[in-house]
Amino acid sequence: MTESRRKAALREGRLAARDAIPPEERIEKSLAMVAFGQEVVEIRPGTIVSAFLPIRSEADIRPLMALLRDRGARICVPVILDKQTIVFRELIRGAELVKGVFGTSGPGPEAPELEPDIMLVPLSAFDAVGHRIGYGGGYYDRAIRRLHEKGRDPLLIGIAFDCQEVAFVPAEDHDVRLNAVLTESGFRPFSR
After folding, report:
1. Predicted confidence band at 24 (pLDDT cuts at 50, 70, 90)?
2. pTM of whole model > 0.85?
3. In the 8-state DSSP scheme, what is residue 82?
4. How many domains are contained in the chain?
5. Which of 11, 37, 51, 118 is such that its CA lies 20 to 30 A from the CA of 187?
6. Three-state SS for 27?
7. Can you give the CATH number for the domain in which 151 is found?
8. Using N-to-C axis directions, what is the helix angle for 62-70 and 23-40, rounded to 10°?
9. Could you read off the pLDDT of 51-70 as tens digits, one per residue?
10. DSSP run (H or E) holding 157
11. CA atoms of 176 and 2, how far apart (whole Å)
C-alpha cells in the first residue's frame, strides 16, 4: 500500500470517528479545548493567529478565537483562492462572510491578508510525534512552506478530538510537523 493510500485510509477512519461524536458531546469537547487553549496559547497585542470557522464535525474554536482577540490578537481564517492556494484573511467582528468551497466561509477580498505567528490547524489525524494528516488538498503544507520561504516560522497547533489520534502517520517529505496539539484532554507539545 502506498503512503498516500495509507493516509487516505487513516483520514477516512479518523473522520468517521469524529463524525460519530454526537453534536452535544462535540460542543462540550470543544469548550474543554477552549478552556485548555486559553491557558497555554500565549498572546501579545498584535499577535496574528490563524484559526478556522468549523465545517462538518470539526471542533468549534470560535470561543477561543474570541478570547484571543480580547487579549489583543488579530484573528485570521483561511480562504481558498484556487486548487493550490489558501490565504489568511483578517476576521473582523461583524464583517460579512462569503461562501467558499468545501462548505467553508470567510472574509471577502476586501479583508487584509495576514501572515500568522500562530496557526490553529484543523486536521483529520495526528500521531504522538506531531505528524498530521489534513484533508488531502495540501493547502496548509503549501501555505506553511510559503511562510517559511519568507523567513517566518509560525507556531503550529493542531486542533483535534482525542479520537483522531493514530499510532503512526506515514510522513512524506512535504509534510510539516506540528509543534503541539490541542484536544479536549489538554494541550500537548511535541519535542523537536
Report:
1. very high
2. yes
3. S
4. 1
5. 11
6. helix
7. 3.40.50.10420
8. 30
9. 999 999 999 999 999 999 99
10. strand 155-159
11. 19
